[in-house]
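Appendix B: complex inputs.
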Amino acid sequence: MDASTVIVGLGGVLSASAPVLVASVGETFAERAGVINLSINGTILLSAMGSFAVAVSTHSLLLGFLTGCVIGAAVALVVAFGSITLRQSQVAVGFVLALFCRDLSYFLGNPYMGDQGPRLSSLPIPGLSHIPVLGTLFFKQDIMTYFSFVLIAGAWWYIFRTRQGLVLRAVGERPAAAFARGARVNMLRYVYTTLGGALVGLAGPMFSLSIKAGWKGTISGLDGIGWIVLAIVIFGAWNPVRVAFGAYLFGLLQWLGVVLQPSLPGIPSQVLQVAPFPLMILTLLLVNVGNAEWVDRVLASLPERSRKWVARVLRSLRVLPPRSLGVPFERD
Amino acid sequence: MEVQLREIRKHFGPVKANDGITLSVPAGSIQGILGENGAGKSTLMKILSGFQPADSGDIVLDGTLARMRSPADAIRHGVGMLHQDPLDFPPMSVVDNLLIGAPGGVIPRRREAAAAIAEEARSLGLSIDLRAEVGSLTVGERQQLELLRLLWLGARVLILDEPTTGISAEQRAVLFSTLRRLAGQGKTVIFVSHKLEEVQDLCTRVAVLRQGRLVGAALPPFDVDGLVNMMFARQVSPGERMVCTPGEPMLRLSSLGVERSRIRLSGLDLDVRESETIGLAGMEGSGQSLLLRACAGLVPTVQGRIRLNNADLTGKPYRQFKKRGVAYVPASRLEEGLIPGLTLTEHFLLADRQGGVFIDREKGRRLAQSRIEEFNIRGTPANRVESLSGGNQQRALLALVKEKAKLLLLEHPTRGLDIESVIYLWGKLKERCLGGGAILFTSSDLDELLRYSDRILVFFSGRVSALLDAATTTVDELGQLIGGRGV
Amino acid sequence: MSLLAPGLGETSGKAPKPRSSNRQRWINLGLQIGALFGAFLLTSIILLIAGAPPFEAYKEIFLGAVGSTRSFSNVLVAWVPLLLAAAGVLVTFAAGLWNIGVEGQIVLGAILTTWALRLLQATSLPPALIIIVAMVAGICGGALWAALAGALKTFGGVNEIFGGLGLNFVATALTLWLIFGPWKRPGIGSMSGTEPFPDRLALPTIAGLRLSAWSLGLGLLAVLVVYILLDRTYFGLRLKAVGLNSRASFLLGVPTWQYGMLAFLWCGGLAGLAGAVQVTSVYHRLIPSISSGYGFLGLMIGMLIRYRATWVAPVALFFAALNIGSIQLPIVLKLDSSLSGVLQGALVLFVVLMEGARQRYLRRVRAAVLPPAPSTPAALPSPPGPDALKEA
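Resulting structure:
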């Protein structure tokens, strides 16, 4: 494997990870506001199918992508409605929708299986794409991958550098206090959940109209992506930059799984591609370990000096979720 | 700013929380609002600060009618409320906390805000570390921050709801001097409390609420007895002090050290004797609850030993403590004490470990019925606990304590109860003492502490006073110790 | 408490059901019928979008399910794992847990059953004994996998939703590895699974059908056992207490984390049994997607019946009928068979939303009547789940 193949491969990783990245950043917005959208797995499938179907029928990539957004936003709206207005469990509503949308996508997508649809083409940026390593990596991508790059920066800037981002964080952290400060908590939760859903919906066509072009139903390989997005958001500590890192890591592992497969015979590629999941569990373990009760007990039994030191280490490893994640907000 | 409340009415179902309250507060005054629990103070303040709409009535600020539909509305009119637990955002920085809710453009002006707050603080003689995380500040500092924020946003009416809970004596002095300064600037301060001394010290006028009505107002010099009379309107004689002769030491704490979040107890020595009742006094968050939990094995100790009847229970888990006769009753009834969704019978079946695999419903019902009668709970065995009133829930909680429990650790056992319930419940508790049981309890009610304890410990910021003899201590002495003088 | 701190603030989202007056019972019934109607309406609209006649489709599903003895027996065959999975998740739901990992637990049950069968098939032990041992192995497999999810939650603070999800994927990977690796068919590994077991190592079936009376009996027995467990035993009471308010249960003396783990073990065992049944009675080998989504369907059934065991059997039968009935659709109407999933999802969705509407209506009614919460301890907490005990 020579260097240029590796670079090209890595460039491919960047674009292959783009849909997951976009979906993860979208879900980050929703969870920052305190809403967890468990339906993502189904949404991505449904939006992939729907956008493909529309693109095939209208020969328009634009309409296809737009459809994906709309579908994602619509499903997220149902989650928001069920959990904010009707105050049912976010997990319950999201989980049902995950299964419902998935089956819906298979059902409605049946006629489109195997069809050829329009496909996003590469859009190298003139000039920049000729830079040795960086050009291949960053500037020979398609437009949606460029969008994903911009999204990382944009999302980070929005959440951490703008007033609205402050309010978003406040709503997720302590809705009662945010409400007292004049934030319309439930409305904002609706907005961010739907926005997040739209971004998640965008990931669908980024698959079916680009990387995994076409609709192949149950063997589309998209079933399961949504669950990993949820894990990436946690791994990324609800910070778009770190979330992006998680998405790229996942993409890298997937690529390595394919690349290293010849050297590891007897192990089907599916196994290697599933490898990231135990990694995610490991991460969750690490980030949650400071919170368990038995840890408190062990800590208490340590001598003073080591206790302070260990406590500090645990605290730095600890990842704080938005405190109101999953909890409905009731105006007194 | 002058504040006028006209005929404010608010009801919740059949309960009239505010029943036609009319009150005028001139600008530059510090208006005290006194009243016992349930008098309607909180509701009134929530209405004034926009948290709740009144059913009818008007709020007039400086002669103009004001419509408050939300807290944000209120602050626009210049009314700001400082809650007991400041509504801020612990993981965020001080500056970010300030900016949330403040008007402005897309990019928040952090430097400007920081400078403005620093200036505001300086003018009041306060100091705030602007880069700190709000979660790392003390309650008093968070209060100050909130106050500064409200002033920065242009509040001319400041409502403080029981602000002195959980802050040190120095911080209280700072708070009071700040409030006086603000009043001197023409701002109006409304100070809600049930602490007579503070109201006496600070306020330039006092209004007393009782059962949703304004029953009296006073100007300094205040006649404390008269105020108490207006607040309670009955001379309640709780009867003789019930005294049980203490026996042998049952619980021995030696050099106990416990720490949790920001509170730290260390080097505590205490012997609790049989039949004895020890009251733990102090502001919330001073360490009393921590001690109770440590004595139940709910919080691990970092230092020292806990011995119960000569068995060393240091470091053992809660169930060991429970097995040896320790009973812990938490303060929050429905969050930690009872299980909403289950009936009284089911609670009793849970509490008393039952033998056998299959539920004996008849036995459970009889058990529940007998406990209901014993504790005078207004409910039936088949009632779900969430349908009981607060007072009955508290009775149920105490009824769940096992018969054979020898050491009762009670957090605020009579919080929110009317005086009759308090007397009744203490009657039941003292029966335990007659049987050799010991009680450790926390309370914010000084009268309760003095009346029912044999000895009292006062906590202040993790420091513990010497044991006081309840029979000879006065409310004054207690109050001072709670305030930090002499602990 | 947030969803991701070890103390789950809100898990199954079941608010305690208030005592129903007669009027409320009528409202409940009305809402349930409304949910049914809404689901069928939505599915019909979807069918119309797909260009298919709705009633025709429903008719085909119906015929596909009960049209012949053979097809109905297939429905019963599909009923069994659903019964087991649904019964299992009811136990975890009672404890306030979202056992999303139930899929993986079924898979591990199948894996261990296969392992046991492979181990013992060459011996001269009587087939009945081998089968029994293998099924016990399956139960253990599922229970083990569930215990893993439980341990991750109890000791690692990993929310069981994510732990379960991750373990599901690991289980799938394990299956694939076994099928293509150590257990592959002689020659070349293929997606059709491992080498099928000899006929003697299968649960005896009824005259020429795929249905085994034994597995059916096991399924129904499981539902009965779970019903009794949850409703009539102290274990069930304590489990429910933990699910409703684990902090208070702990203080009252219920060993919370143990009960959480036990709930996982129960569900895992039943799920493992489902996997074992799939191997010994249906497929006679290990195939890649041996759990066939039954785990998730079990969760859906649990949500549909509002977590009470009374209606498990009929609803599971209905779901099984939908699944089997829609197999015909691609042949007869050129429709994808996932229509059954669409209908099932629509049903659960509507039930959940109707429940929300009902609670909203009740809240409105109550707010006008009851006094407010006292200003200090709050009146009603949101339904909590089993916390790793957190000190306030």
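Chain A has 15 helices and no strands.
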